[in-house]
TrEMBL record, chain A:
<comment type="pathway">
    <text>Amino-acid biosynthesis; L-leucine biosynthesis; L-leucine from 3-methyl-2-oxobutanoate: step 2/4.</text>
</comment>
<keyword id="KW-0432">Leucine biosynthesis</keyword>
<feature type="binding site">
    <location>
        <position position="367"/>
    </location>
    <ligand>
        <name>[4Fe-4S] cluster</name>
    </ligand>
</feature>
<dbReference type="InterPro" id="IPR036008">
    <property type="entry name" value="Aconitase_4Fe-4S_dom"/>
</dbReference>
<keyword id="KW-0004">4Fe-4S</keyword>
<comment type="similarity">
    <text>Belongs to the aconitase/IPM isomerase family. LeuC type 1 subfamily.</text>
</comment>
<feature type="binding site">
    <location>
        <position position="430"/>
    </location>
    <ligand>
        <name>[4Fe-4S] cluster</name>
    </ligand>
</feature>
<dbReference type="InterPro" id="IPR015931">
    <property type="entry name" value="Acnase/IPM_dHydase_lsu_aba_1/3"/>
</dbReference>
<protein>
    <recommendedName>
        <fullName>3-isopropylmalate dehydratase large subunit</fullName>
        <ecNumber>4.2.1.33</ecNumber>
    </recommendedName>
</protein>
TrEMBL record, chain B:
<dbReference type="Pfam" id="PF00694">
    <property type="entry name" value="Aconitase_C"/>
</dbReference>
<feature type="domain" description="Aconitase A/isopropylmalate dehydratase small subunit swivel">
    <location>
        <begin position="1"/>
        <end position="112"/>
    </location>
</feature>
<dbReference type="InterPro" id="IPR015928">
    <property type="entry name" value="Aconitase/3IPM_dehydase_swvl"/>
</dbReference>
<keyword id="KW-0100">Branched-chain amino acid biosynthesis</keyword>
<dbReference type="InterPro" id="IPR000573">
    <property type="entry name" value="AconitaseA/IPMdHydase_ssu_swvl"/>
</dbReference>
<dbReference type="InterPro" id="IPR004431">
    <property type="entry name" value="3-IsopropMal_deHydase_ssu"/>
</dbReference>
<dbReference type="InterPro" id="IPR033940">
    <property type="entry name" value="IPMI_Swivel"/>
</dbReference>
<keyword id="KW-0456">Lyase</keyword>
<protein>
    <recommendedName>
        <fullName>3-isopropylmalate dehydratase small subunit</fullName>
        <ecNumber>4.2.1.33</ecNumber>
    </recommendedName>
</protein>
Amino acid sequence: MSIVSQPETTPAADAHIPERPRTLAEKVWDAHLVAKGENGEPDLIYIDLHLVHEVTSPQAFDGLRQAGRPVRRPDLTIATEDHNTPTIGIDRPIADLTSRTQIETLRRNAEEFGIRLHSLGDIEQGIVHVVGPQLGLTMPGITVVCGDSHTSTHGAFGAMAFGIGTSEVEHVLATQTLPLKPFKTMAITVEGELRPGVTAKDIILAVIAKIGTGGGQGYVLEYRGSAIRALSMEGRMTICNMSIEAGARAGMVAPDETTYTYVKGRPHAPEGEDWDAAVAYWNTLATDEGAAFDAEVFIDANELEPFVTWGTNPGQGVSLSQTVPDPSAFSDHNERAAAERALEYMDLEAGTPMKDIKVDAVFMGSCTNSRIEDLRAFASIVKGQKKADHVRVMVVPGSARVRIEAEAEGLDKVFTEFGAEWRFAGCSMCLGMNPDQLAPGERCASTSNRNFEGRQGKGGRTHLVSPLVAAATAIRGTLSSPWDLIEGAN
Amino acid sequence: MEKITTIEGVAVPFRRSNVDTDQIIPAVFLKRVTKTGFDDALFHAWRQDPDFILNRREYQGAKVLIAGPDFGTGSSREHAVWALRDFGFRAVISPRFADIFRGNSGKQGLLTGVVDEQTVERLWERIEAEPGMNATVDLVAQTVTVGDLTVPFEIDDYTRWRLLEGLDDIGLTLRDEARITEFETTRESWRPRTLPIR
C-alpha cells in the first residue's frame, strides 16, 4: 500500500487514511484532515495558503471585526489588488470612486489584521493566480483557497485548490480551516501529441464542450495522460484554471520534474533539507496504480484542433474549422433553448463558418493566459506583422513581474509595433469590473475564461480562444487559427 | 443566522438554464464593501427588458425562484446570494446547482432545493396556469407545494440541519479549535509561509 512508502513527514490523521490505493486528490485531502466528519457532518480540512483580493474580502473582514476575531494565520495569507485595478495610468488615483473605496478598504484591512499585501505599483502585484505560483507559494501537496473561482489554477502543481465564497473567506481567516464534504474524483485522460498550433487552451475548451458546464459538479478533476505530462506549468495552469467552467471546483495534475523545476529557487520555495523532504513527499502524491476514479473521460490529443466558443457559456464551443451549430440539432430542450438565446445574444446565424466571424477586439490576458509563456506564444505569431485595421488589441500581463520579464525579452516592442496596447498587470478585460471593457455589441476574441453575457462589458460578445488563435485573429480580423497564416490561403 | 422551517411566498417560474452568477449580478456591482443593498443589481441586464419575468406585476414580492438546471455557475461571488436575498428570495429550486453557489447559499440562509427536470417542468406549468400563486417550501418535510401539487426536494442533511437550527459555521468550527492547534504542530517546515517576506 502506498502509505507504507510515505516519508515520516506525512501529517497526522493517519488513523483516517484508508488502506487502499488512493488518487492524488484523496492523498492531499487525507493529509489535511483536522477532523473526520461523523453522522453526515463535513470533514474539517486545514488550509495551507489563503489568497485574498479586494472584491470578495471586505465583508469577511467586517465579519471578523463584528465578532472580535483575529486572523488566525496571517503568515499563511497573502493579498493582492487585481480585479478593480486599471491597467493604464496606475500612478494616478483610481478614477472610479467605488473601485477606489474597495481598494482602500483592502489596504486598511490588511494593515489592521497584519496581512501581507501587494498593492498596485508594487513589483509583486498582479492577478492573484499568477502571483501565488510566481512567488513559489503554490507548491505540490498543499491546500489553497481564495474568494475567486479560478483558484483551481493552482491545482496544476498537484495542490488541492478551489474557489470559495465570502462567508468561507471569513471562515478561513478566523480558523484556517474549512468544513467540506469529500469530493468525488474524475480522471480526464488526454493521450497523444498536440499538433503544432494546438495548445492547452484548446484541450480544456474541448473538455468543457465534451462534459458540459455542469459535468464536473461535485468532482475534483485529475488531468492525466501523455499530452498533459508534455505540457509546461503554464499550460497546466491554463487547463486547471478552467476546471470551474466544467462545474468542478478543483482540477489537479500530479507533480513531476516539470513542476519541481518550476518551483525550485522561487522566493518562497523550500530550501536545503526542506526541499529534499518536500520532494520526497511530493513523489508519493501521484495516483496509485489501481486507484478508482468515480468517473473517467478520454480525449485524443492527436485529433484536437484550435477551438473557439460560439455561445454564452464555455461549454458552447467547436473546432475553429466548424460552423455555428443549429440549435434544433440539440436533443435536450434546455440546451436547445440555451443555444437559441446564445445565438440571439451573440448575433450569429446557425451554419456560419466560425472563420467568417469578424471581431472588433482581441484581448490577450487574464488568469487563464497571461503568463510569460502565453505572451511569448502570442508574440511568436504577431512578430513583424501588423494588426487588422479595424481590430483593437490589448495585451495585459498577469503580474508586474511578467511585465518586466516580457520587456526584458523585447516582447513589449513586438506588441506595440504590431499595433497592440501594452498594459500594466490586472484582471483587465476578463470581467468588466475595471475600465477595460467592451462597448455594447462589440465582439472580442479573448484568451480569458468566460463568455457569459456581458462578462467583458454590458452587451459585449466574447469568443474564448488560445493565445495563438487570438494572435492569428488580430492579424486577419476574423476568427483565425495559426494554420490559416501558414497556409496563406483562404 | 435566522432559523428556517417553512418559506411561503410568490413563486417565479424561471424558465432558464445555465444561469451564471454574472447574470445574477454583473461584476460592476461587486465594488461595494457592504453585504446588503444589492437588490437593484439582481439580474440587472435582464431587468432592463420590461417583459422580463421579475418585472411582471404578478411576480412582485416573490420569495421562491424555480429555475432550470445549472443555476449559479461561474464566479464564486457570494454577492449573487446577497442580491437574491436582498430582492426578497428565500429559496431557489433547480435540478442542479453549481457547487460554490450552493455552499454560499447555505451559509447565508438561502435555501437551495434540488428536484429533477420533469418536476421543475410540472412546477412551472402549475404556476404559469395561475401566475402570482404562492409556493410553500417546507424544510422539515422537504417538500415544495404549489396549489394542489406537492413534490419532494433534496438538500444535504448537514445544510438542512444548519438552516433549521440557524447555526453559524465559524462558531461550530471553533468548538474544534484544540484539534486545529494540534494539527498545526504537525505541519512540516517545507509548507508555504507568506511571512516573513522573502
